Amino acid sequence: MPTKAKRRESQARAVNLRIREDDRTLIDHAARVHGKTRSDFMIDASRRAAQDALLDMTFVRVDRKTYDHYLSILDRPPSGDGFKRLMNAKRPWHS
Question: What is the pLDDT of residue 1?
């Protein structure tokens, strides 16, 4: 039998948001495309955003050689077939 603490953790609680109609329409469209409800889509997106926000605060230490190599890669201009396809792809948020 689950403990009281475990039962409390698993209980869903309401979160109320006020959003503009155009934002709601966009969210609903994206949710439908992914076969999710609005709530499930927003919970997944919020969870990812929260994880990203916390991961962005993670400090990574590397030696000087690794850091210099990393910077040299970042300084290279993007190129290749994959980059060309990406730049020519239709943007799904434009109708």
Answer: 56
